[in-house]
Write a structure and sequence with these properties.
The structure is a homopentamer of 382-residue chains. With 382 residues, chain A is α+β, with helices and mostly antiparallel strands. Chain A is built from nine helices and seven strands, in the order αββαβααββββααααα. The first copy, chain A, has helices at 4-11, 57-61, 78-88, 92-99, 160-168, 178-213, 217-249, 257-322, 344-365, and strands at residues 36-42, 47-52, 67-73, 106-109, 114-121, 135-142, 146-151. In chain A, strands 2-1-3-7-6-5-4 form a seven-stranded mixed β-sheet, sandwiched between helices. In chain A, β6 and β7 form a beta hairpin. In chain A, α6 (178-213) packs parallel to α8 (257-322) and α7 (217-249) runs antiparallel to α8 (257-322). The longest helix of chain A has 66 residues, at 257-322.
């Protein structure tokens, strides 16, 4: 059972520091991909979008645009990160956290910027082939005139709707500041978990149907996998709730009051998702329990068949065995005189039919066969 | 296993926004029904009730009546909602939430109005045929002189008692403002869950009786369905508690103090319902456990029968098999001389009767048969 | 399985209002019993006790006595309740709650009086025959000079010790006000649950002993019933804790400071009872688990017996079957020459004894028989 | 199953008042032992220790000594308690609580004294023979110049180290006041639970080893008993935590600040003990689960043996049965010509060997026998 | 089953005081190792590192160096501890806690110093051979110019990276005070738990794969051991969270504000680890459940095989038994005339083939064999 995607995921170091490395030194994560830098600079009037080869190009752009959105895709290039840190005045500990995958979603205030961590479903290239849900770390730095987003894995993300809206310039999106953009990205992250949950719900539904249709050890495994995925979603979504609640509750000069209203809406979505998540977790636990009781029930059915067959035929086989004994009727008058009785064979057959009939009556009484007695369910409420 | 009602329910989009759609744009839910607008305008003296074809008719009515109750039944007509939003000054995010089914019950204050979301048991046309409990979203906008109620599914609702009381003009109902009307609707929602809980309780009672009467895998499924329905009620009722608690606790100019006393009463009912709900959930979990132990017990009974039959007859069958062997007694004096002994047959029969009797004594000792020894239960308390 | 007492209990309406009835209208509960009014009027010096036929007689008594205790037994007479409400100035919502059975214990302050709801074990006539624990609703109105107690079911209650003490005039009872009387009644309610808990504890003890003595599906049912009763006690006692805590903590002009000390004592008893209750619930859950593992163990024992018998005799039966075949030794030298070998029969018997002995050795090795090896338990602490 | 010790324990009344007895009257508990009064009077310089026959002797001693420690061992003598109450000005409700066994540990402030209740493992004469852990109630009254300790059961207690230290006059013990003495006693109580927990831990360890060594229903019972003992310790220790926390947190003139530091240390020990307790409870629950899965596993092993034997030999027995039929080969050419074929017997034997071999291959494939395939565990972390 | 390492661990006294020993007296723990004293004295400019034979040498060093880090490895030498206490002014109760192994991690403020307790994975010599995770107690005293660290077990610790950084003099490490050093040590402790958790996660992964591959009672045991290790980690890490939260939240003159930022980072790591821990605990519990259902499933498979074989062959064996009876066809026309019918043998064989075929059709219908019907899983989300 070789599950390469899974093994690779495991082997990624969990500890926030490489062993023996001083806190404060930036270290490339084990299987980091090459970094790609994209910038979208925009204001109410105009928008420019391009790929950067050198982070230093940003120095010239700063101040020219109301909002600079720098999207760092892939964490392989520590030098670029260091440069960005210098350009935007990012705090060292926050930069370290960007590189420490497995961060828990959180919101931290630093003098120069807000620092947010979230986890989103991994949709890009590195999503592996193991089938298990993987999440990818998203780090956001929100400043007065910039938003820096760092994605763990290059390739697909869930921000295309945001980009499309920016390009179209519709709604609040272009007029508002980096705080609204951060809201839009977080909202995109939350929305990206909904199809994951829907799939989990569909799987649970299908598994429930299959469960009652047939016994299959694969079902236990699949229920386990859904529950495992739900645990992953949970680890990503629960702390997001706290994070959003902090943003909504505590005033911060970098977050406008209007944006706070939108963040409250996003917070409501997260709470609703957690509700659903816990319901699915309960359903999943229920399926495991039902699986066990159905297996027991099937065993009972199997054992009933065996027991009925054995209980009817084993005594009969004994009886025919008795008359298969080779005692010599010539040796004495008590030695199997039945064998020579003209009615012996029909009498034995009738006796055995009576035994079998008695057994069937006994099984009927125990309700093993033809058990039609049912207690009527109560009538539905009017 | 084709469960169309269930599948249809699932396919409804869980995410609050359609993918790729900007927040702030109203989108018709997937399977929305045509909208029907009904208005009940009333004051202490008079009451007018009619169906609207155009929301603009409301502009003329506003200001003429102390209270306008606009009931939007079915969410298919976004234009009508937009018009209502413009007439009553409803907040955009709240309007979006009306269309985002699967909202969690909540209470939100906006500058111009209160916005409440609740879930009520679906009684109308769309209740499906799957048998599972479905809930329907109810959104309430409470303003100074209006109450707007939006129901997800047209057809039956649980507000007829409220309408009857309004028409009759009895009690506080006509004299009080939209806040009291909102209380009356929420109270109707809470009351509508009681028969659902009663049915769950009756099902659990019946299932408990059936459980001890016979083994049926259908019981596991039905217990699971009741527990699933209880989970649905829970998701609707738990947040309602918070919602009512907010309304009772935090003063708001739109909610009169007298209404607050009634809301506290409604809150008490919700708490009482939650108590009952948790008790039923405990009972349901207990039934699943008992089912498992009863299945085990039945298996034991079945196995005892099989084992007794097999243990008595297998050795006997061996014995008769021995005397069915064809060794030639003529070949030597040790070759089955019993076969020619005049008492051979009776002796073997007696020997086998002794073996069978010994087995029965053994079973009696182990308590498998005739086990009448009982420990008396303690006497009841005086 | 016709359990009339249980069914009757279920059918009582759970919803606080009859459907279609305005809040504010008093409705007789479904199976209410005729009302009986008893009054005990007392002061430090004297005491008068009589049965009332008309509530209006109380108007004359009010003001004449320091304390009027009006005991309403049975809720069938709404007119009497309305009259009492008018005489003592009781709040409408509180009166409604008296008639809405299934209330959760609570304490509410109204301008004119305190309103308490509690649940006590049903000891009177309606206690049914189903054996399950039923609780009865007790509502108390505490005013400056009166205490009104409303009992759901006429007949036995747990207040006779209080009446006896009042008549005897001993201790604080006659000198103190209605608040001390309310404490005495609540204390009586709490004391009435102790024998219920003791019975549950005794049942659990007996069931534990029975469990290890024999396998009986009735044990699962009885454990379930005890756990069900514990759930009922829990629903009655948990909110009582909150209620008493409110009374002890929040100052109220109707509750004297000395009474508060006694209420704190009563609160301690409730907390102690909840402790015991939770311990019993844990024990009950443990018994269900143990039942399951004992059933499994017994199954193992049964299967071992079957397997040993079958494993020893099925091969032997095969061997004797071989020598029961009718191949003709005359047809060729390879056709069962053993049958004519003089030592054939003894040789086969010895071979079979060897096979059986080998099997026994194998079973011994697996520890199925004569498994006397025990690991010693650690010595007790010194 | 006659467990006198256990029954006796049960029969002790749980309710705080005897039925029909006014609160405020002291009642001797059901199986109270004769009271023994011991006093240790001490100051920094000297110490006197003696047994009292009459509590009134204390009147003379009061004021002569900085600290009077009166130890009441056994609660049979209510008159002595009343006298002590009069001498030291003890509150009536507190005195009642001393006699109401089954009190929950608590700390209460009365005008004249602090009143503490704790539970300690019963080490003395009444510890019964049931083997189950029993706890004994300890009540402490702390005044300015006295400490009154009341023990439920005479005989062994856990205060000998305290007495020894007092007599030796070492450390703070003689110089400090009754508050420090109370700390020393509570610390002794906490220390007395450690060996109990250690025994529980050792039992769980042993049971885990036994569990994997052999299947024994006694193990289920013993795990249950350990879990039951842990529940008892829990009921004694959890409220002790609250009690100590109250003493540490809330300033009180009767507790010196230096003593508070020691109480904080004692509080830490209780928290640490609760930690351990919960860990053991988790381990106990885990053992019950494992027991179940081991029983299932053993059942599988047993069933495999049975199935293999039956599956190999039942078809073979059928085959030999076929050739044991007595159809007359002379009646026609199709009537069992094999019987007279010279190679008939060897052919049948070879056919049966092939069938048995095929079965073994099938079992090998299913992994029932010779299943050596193992997935290697991951290497240990470096 | 002799597990010496485990037994030795158990036997270590849990109680904080040796019985009969006054609080305040330092007692060597039962199996303490000889003490080794190492000091690293450093400032921004220089660093001196040496082993001490006499604690008094520290008196001379104090005041000469900005920071003195005294590392006490092994707790066998109480005199050295006493001396250190005198030199640095350590509080008596804190010193006692150093020697009381099994302390819960905590942070306590004393007038002269901060006192921290933590637990770290035991990596050194005493790690035992039992395979179970053991933790070792680390006590830290933080003063203005010193840090005293006491390790329970000599040998390996997790502080080598800290020492290396100090020697290299890089980053903040040499310039900052003892508070930063304490942070570095705590961070090392936290980091040391990551590989432990990773191993647990890997074990759970492997066990999940093995679980589905084969049934082995060893799996239950290994899942139990992983869960046991997770419990150990939990006991060490949960209180660490509180401890760090206290340090971060409450200002203290001994902890600089810059260090507080680093401690917050360390706190985040602990929270993240707890998240992971709880996820693993959930997975472990899930594996135990799945194990049980897989065992049931395998039992079903085994029983199906047995039942099919028995159900097909037992009736057939009965039939061949019938024709193996020795009734004499000469005795009468009804006595087994089939035996002499020319088509008797083929007719019986065909009849038996028909019976066997019918059985197979029946098994097919029940889905025991060739059950290929599968419900398709829902398509993955797009």
């Amino acid at each position: 059972m070789n599950l390469p995607g899974k093994k690779r995921r495991r082997r990624r170091r969990l500890a926030p520091h490489a062993p023996g490395v001083a806190a404060g030194t930036l270290v490339v994560p084990a299987d980091a991909r090459p970094t790609r830098l994209r910038v979208i600079a925009y204001g109410p009037e105009r928008l420019e979008e391009r790929e950067l080869s050198d982070p230093q190009e940003l120095r010239a752009m700063r101040g020219q645009w109301p909002v600079l959105w720098v999207d760092v895709d892939g964490l392989g290039d520590v030098a670029a990160l260091e440069a960005l840190g210098a350009i935007f005045g990012l705090h060292r500990l926050a930069l370290e956290d960007v590189l420490n995958l497995h961060q828990r979603p959180k919101a931290e205030r630093y003098p120069e910027h807000l620092f947010l961590v979230a986890r989103m479903p991994a949709l890009g290239e590195a999503a592996g082939g193991s089938g298990a849900l993987e999440t990818e770390q998203l780090s956001l730095f929100i400043g007065k005139d910039f938003l820096l987003s760092c994605q763990e894995r290059p390739g697909g993300d869930c921000f295309d709707p945001v980009r499309t809206r920016l390009r179209a310039g519709k709604g609040r999106s272009r007029a508002a500041g980096p705080d609204y953009l951060a809201y839009a990205l977080l909202d995109g992250v939350v929305d990206a978990f909904y199809p994951v949950l829907e799939t989990c719900g569909d799987h649970l539904d299908t598994l429930e149907d299959e469960l009652f249709a047939r016994a299959d050890p694969g079902i236990a495994r699949r229920v386990h996998q859904v529950r495992r995925d739900l645990l992953s979603v949970r680890r990503a979504v629960w702390p997001l709730r706290e994070e959003l609640s902090t943003l909504v509750r505590d005033p911060d000069p970098l977050v406008a009051d209007e944006t706070r209203v939108y963040l409250r809406d996003c917070y409501d979505h997260v709470v609703q998702m957690i509700d659903l998540l816990e319901t699915y977790r309960d359903l999943g636990a229920g399926l495991t329990e039902i699986h066990l009781s159905l297996l027991s029930h099937r065993m009972n059915e199997i054992m009933k068949v065996l027991t009925m067959i054995a209980t009817i035929f084993i005594p009969l086989t004994f009886v025919v065995g008795v008359y298969g004994m080779n005692f010599d009727p010539d040796a004495g008058p008590l030695n199997m005189p039945e064998l020579r009785w003209p009615w012996g064979y029909p009498a034995v057959m009738l006796f055995m039919a009576a035994v079998a009939g008695g057994m069937l009556v006994y099984f009927k009484r125990r309700g093993w066969i033809w058990s039609g007695e049912r207690i009527e369910p109560p009538p539905p409420p009017k």
